[in-house]
Specification:
alpha+beta; about 30% helix; Beta-lactamase
């Protein structure tokens, strides 16, 4: 197992742990990066980006729901600049949204309270990549619960809903705003909507155990939770990890699915989150005042579907350090994880951040074990 990259001597203990984690994967590779006070202290890669191809510092990885964290940061930037009031109705910026709710606020949309966590219609992949058919279906359907009341994770629809809100406010798509406000100024290789010229750099996903549909009866909580991941027919669960389809499809990489298809490196994730809590590469992304609003605990406990706990507490689109959940860098950490084991977190107490990517997708109770172990090691160094 070849591990390459950089480690500050203070964090030397992270490298053998990372090597152990990558060696234990049945296939694929991973990347891990950490920043402290705006400086990179760990940036490691290892394993394979695809069969027979070593994971290099230039390897890109699709980061699934870690993208939602970046969308939330973009919304925070709009709040900072007075372009968006989080307590205003979504319909004040996007009039057609009144068909869903005239009163649902921007803040509650970011809290996954819109009642639109899944699309009732069966959509094709072509529909989803086009974008507009998803928005039309969401505006036309009866919400799954009363908007603004309970919450449930909007696994894919979050991207379309918040992305359209961003477009109505700024005139830019999420990918355009992401490039202008985060990726470009910070000098990182990161996209929501990958240029075709970068396709060959993207790691190919594999799964140790195939994902299979549950077959839950229509209308049950399990049915709606699963449907939130698939759009009906667009991303069937049994396609996950297969070459050239689903999130291994270059057409999916090129599209803007801003709830789930950001593409970057572990260093790209860590750089962006570092800029949220401290000056990084000459940039400070959010003010302390807006960050305080975004990290206020607003959502906790079971969703409308009643999943077993513990559950991540949430703020303005962000996951927050939560009692009973895996320990992060401190109790002041926040960010967002991603399907299969991806992660991106920032920490106010230590002015630190981490990013983890992997193309070996794991589900279930051990989904996030890899980055949890790495975060624990970084935390022990920071606390010593």
């Amino acid at each position: 197992m070849v591990i390459s990259g950089f480690v500050d001597p203070r964090f030397a203990s992270v490298e053998p742990l990372f090597a152990e984690i990558v060696a234990a994967q049945p296939a694929g590779g991973s990347g891990f990066s950490a920043f402290v006070e705006g400086a990179c202290v760990v940036d490691l890669v290892g394993g394979e980006s695809r069969s027979g191809v070593a994971w290099s510092p230039d390897t890109l990885s699709l980061i699934f729901s870690c993208t939602k964290g970046f969308m939330s940061v973009l919304m925070g930037i709009l709040v900072d600049r007075g372009l968006c009031d989080p307590e205003s109705p979504v319909a004040a910026y996007w009039p057609e949204f009144a068909r869903v709710s005239e009163t649902l606020t921007v803040r509650r949309l970011l809290e996954h309270r819109a009642g639109l966590s899944a699309v009732r219609a069966d959509l094709s992949l072509e529909d989803v990549l086009a974008g507009v058919p998803v928005l039309e279906a969401l505006l036309d359907q009866k919400p799954l619960w009363e908007p603004g009341t309970g919450y449930a994770y909007h696994a894919l629809t979050f991207g379309h809903l918040v992305g359209e809100l961003i477009r109505r406010i700024t005139g830019k798509t999420t990918g355009e705003l992401f490039a202008a406000e985060l990726a470009g100024p910070l000098g990182v290789d990161a996209w929501i909507g990958l240029p075709g010229s970068e396709t060959s750099r993207v790691a190919e996903f594999s799964v140790p155990t195939p994902f299979t549909p549950s077959g839950a009866p229509e209308g049950t909580p399990e049915y709606w939770s699963e449907r939130s991941l698939t759009f009906g027919n667009a991303f069937p669960l049994d396609s996950v990890g297969k070459p050239g389809v689903g999130f291994n499809d270059p057409a999916v990489h090129r599209a803007e699915l801003p709830g789930a298809n950001g593409i970057t490196t572990a260093r790209g994730i860590a750089t962006i989150w570092s800029s949220v809590v401290t000056e990084t590469n000459g940039q400070r992304t959010l003010t302390d005042e807006t960050l305080a609003m975004m990290t206020e605990r607003r959502v906790s406990g079971p969703s409308v579907w009643g999943e077993a706990g513990p559950w991540w507490d949430r703020g303005f689109g962000l996951m927050l350090a939560t009692p009973g959940k895996p320990a992060l860098l401190s109790t002041d950490s926040f960010g967002h994880d991603g399907f299969g084991g991806q992660a991106g977190w920032a920490d106010l107490q230590h002015k630190a951040s981490i990013g983890f990517v992997t193309n070996n997708l794991v589900a279930g109770t051990h989904e996030h074990d890899r980055w949890i172990a790495l975060v624990a090691e970084v935390r022990s160094v920071l606390e010593s």
